[in-house]
């Protein structure tokens, strides 16, 4: 992101004036009306508020830059920094609003990628634990995808990719949690439906090996040995070194079965795709 000339010097002056005001019980600087400040003074006062850990005040001063000096270069810069300040204050709705306004107003600006990234973070940083509704996770995924696809060469794309993968894994973990809940209570068909979602829709996540093992468990509990063997075969082909394959192998061989593709179930289709090199 760009740095305006004179910012450090101006920030130092603001720091001195604020300290003097604090020590002297108030000063002319402390009581000046905001419209008497230049755009640069307001901007740097906002930056100082961030530095001392007052992001809400920073957001207010960045907003004053935009209000008092609209369409100026300082106003443009202040808008994206206001989104940052709101995010630092965990006011995610306000951060998202400021970021979106920047994107809408300055779509071609070099800071648009950062604004889009802040918008995505406003969702991502609210992702709750696995046990809660995952609506925000879906929104985070879409917003992160926008960063990746719209600004692939930006410095934020790599971070967005990493966060996208984590959010994607988060959704898969939610499916696994529900599947395990059903499995423990003997609701095998409901459990299978959840584990199938992970295998088919979230196969690049870290949840897939366990999902395949739980399918082996579920199908064996229902007496569907061909499906259990096929799930074990997929697990062995892709995750042979994991504890999940070892557990599945022991379950199957303990019943005189082998982890190998059998029958014509949906798992057989997955297995054939894997053999053709289309798996993962």
From TrEMBL:
One of its GO terms (biological process) is protein insertion into membrane. PANTHER family: CELL DIVISION COORDINATOR CPOB, SOLUBLE LYTIC MUREIN TRANSGLYCOSYLASE-RELATED. Transmembrane segments: none annotated. Belongs to the BamD family. It is a lipid-anchor. Residues 1-28 form the signal peptide. SUPFAM superfamilies: TPR-like (SSF48452). CDD domains: BamD. Part of the Bam complex. Keywords: Cell outer membrane, Lipoprotein, Membrane, Palmitate, Signal. Residues 38-231 form the Outer membrane lipoprotein BamD-like domain. It is found in: Cell outer membrane. GO terms for cellular component: cell outer membrane. HAMAP family: OM_assembly_BamD. This is Outer membrane protein assembly factor BamD. Its main location: membrane. Part of the outer membrane protein assembly complex, which is involved in assembly and insertion of beta-barrel proteins into the outer membrane.
């Amino acid at each position: 992101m760009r740095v305006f000339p004179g910012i450090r010097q101006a920030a130092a002056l603001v720091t001195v004036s604020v300290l003097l005001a604090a020590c002297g019980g108030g000063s002319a600087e402390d009581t000046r009306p905001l419209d008497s400040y230049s755009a640069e003074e307001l901007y740097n006062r906002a930056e100082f508020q961030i530095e001392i850990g007052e992001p809400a005040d920073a957001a207010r001063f960045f907003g004053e830059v935009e209000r008092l000096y609209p369409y100026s270069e300082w106003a443009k810069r202040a808008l994206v920094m206001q989104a940052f300040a709101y995010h630092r204050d965990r006011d995610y709705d306000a951060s998202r609003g400021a970021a979106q306004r920047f994107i809408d107003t300055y779509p071609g600006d070099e800071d648009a990628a950062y604004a889009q990234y802040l918008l995505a973070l406003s969702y991502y940083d609210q992702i709750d634990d696995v046990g809660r509704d995952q609506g925000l996770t879906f929104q985070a995924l879409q917003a992160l995808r926008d960063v990746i696809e719209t600004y692939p060469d930006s410095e934020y794309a790599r971070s967005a990719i990493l966060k996208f993968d984590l959010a994607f894994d988060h959704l898969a973990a939610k499916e696994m949690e529900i599947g395990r809940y059903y499995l423990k209570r003997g609701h095998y068909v409901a459990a299978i439906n959840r584990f199938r979602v992970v295998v088919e829709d979230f196969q690049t996540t870290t949840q897939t090996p366990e999902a395949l093992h739980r399918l082996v468990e579920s199908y064996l509990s229902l007496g569907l040995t061909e499906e259990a063997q096929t799930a074990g075969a997929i697990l062995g082909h892709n995750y042979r070194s994991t504890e999940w394959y070892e557990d599945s192998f022991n379950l199957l061989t303990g019943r005189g079965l082998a982890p190998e593709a059998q029958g014509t179930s949906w798992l057989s289709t997955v297995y054939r795709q894997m053999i053709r090199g289309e798996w993962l």
